Amino acid sequence: MTKCIFVTGGASGIGRAIAIRFAREGWFVALADVDSAGMVQTGALLPAGRWSAHLLDVRDAAGWDIALGLGAAAGGGVIHVVANNAGVPLGGALAQCTVEEIERVIAINLTGATLGARAAYPWLKAAGGQGACLLNTASAAALYGTPGTSVYAATKAGLRALTEALDAEWAGDGIAVRSLMPGFIATPLLEHAPNAATPGTITDAVVRQGLEIGTPDAVAEAAWQAVHGPRLHMLVGPTARRLAFAARWLPGTLRRRLRRGGGTATA
Predict the structure, then answer these.
(1) Of 51, 152, 184, 224, which residue is the catalytic one?
(2) Is 121 part of the annotated catalytic residue set?
(3) pTM (2 decimals)?
(4) Does CATH place domain 4-259 in 3.40.50.720?
C-alpha cells in the first residue's frame, strides 16, 4: 500500500526537502502552503502523479480540515504522516519587535501547529498501526532560550511541549509524535530581516557569530529517521547538539554566558 505524507510549508526549504525525501521512498506527497507557485516548483521535483498541492494558511482551522481531506483523497484515502512544518522567523530584542510581529509568529508557529495537530488526529488515528506519525518542526531554540530569540524560542518550546504531551496522549491510538530540532538551516527564511527594525538578514547575524548553517537535506533525513524510529526529539546539526549538551549538563555555565552577552542565538 502506498503511504501518504501531508507536508505544510511544502513550497520551499525544509518542507520541500522532506517532500523529496519521502517521495524517493515511494510515498505520495500532499503539499500544503500559502505559496501556490512554490508548491508547483516543489512538485516539479517529485514523481509525476505522486503529489498534490493544497492552499492552506495554518492559522485557519477550517482550512486545515479542507486541505487534509483533499490531501487524503488525492493520496488514496489515508494520511500516514503529517509534517507540521510551516513556520516563520522573528529575531532581535523583544523591545524592538512590534505587537503585530509577535502575534503573527505565535499564530503561525504555535497556534497554527496546534490546530494542525487537532485536525490531523482523526486521519492519523485511522492510520494507526501503519506507521502513523505527527512530525513537528521545532528548533534548537526550544532547548534553551537565548538572547534575540525570545518569541521565536517560546513558540518552538511550545512545539516541544506539544510533542511530548501528544506522544503520551496518542500512544494508545498507535500514533507516534516526534519533533525535529535543527539549528540554523539554509532556507529562504534566513534571508529575512530578524524584525522590521533590524537591518540585514538572519544569515548575516549567523555568519557574524561564526555559527554553521546546515542543509534542508539533513533535516529531511532526520525527518525520515524520526518517523521510523523511537527517538522523541531529533537534534539536527552541531549547534543543536552543543546547546542540548550545555542545557542538560552545564546549565549554570550556559546561563552565565548568556547573561554576559556572549550568547548564541539559535533558530
Answers:
(1) 152
(2) no
(3) 0.92
(4) yes
